Amino acid sequence: MKSTWLVRVASIALALAVAGCTIDPYTGEKKTSNTAKGAGLGALAGAAIGAATAGKDKNKAIKQGALAGAAVGAGAGYYMDTQEARLRQQLEATGVRVERIGDTIKLIMPGNITFDTSSSSLKPSFTDVLNSVVEVVKEFDKTLLQINGYTDSTGSFEYNQNLSEQRAESVARFFLNSGVAASRVRTAGMGPRDPIASNDTAAGRSQNRRVELNLIPTGQ
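Above: the chain's sequence. Below: its structure in token form.
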């Protein structure tokens, strides 16, 4: 009996994963969306609960548990999939890199569009980019915004730490002044930590002088 319900649940999870396969527009490869992954895992968890708590009709309980779990599991993934698609559309050709890590969306905004050296004042051209982000995050209001400021390695560590905090706060103020709820916004200064390019060149320092915005589903 146990092997039978495992086979049934595995079939449901596999069907959800196949249905959720898409073509990555950047690599041309087939991949399973986060929605499908969440749905598959939710189906397995829901079915297990259904099997453990079932009365006489175990098969019915397993099926109902699997479907309920799939719906819950797909929720955050679907929400973030949709938000990611909107951000990619809005930020195309702006220089902002959009990355997806699980259910978190990361926006990497390099120094050539954000801040001048030793400055925490937003470049005028950067405000247009941020306006595009604001439009999306106000639409998808079930996400938290973790804003991390970074610097290059020029100057003392203490100076760069303070500057990175000021840069994160500058971006946060922009969101708050644009109507994003303060309860959704968090900031941190990372100083010259975690460089994404070499600090030995001007181009590399410009990339390291950046802001990273992590969009995290509420409750994660």
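Residues 91-217 form a domain with the 60s Ribosomal Protein L30; Chain: A; fold (CATH 3.30.1330.60).
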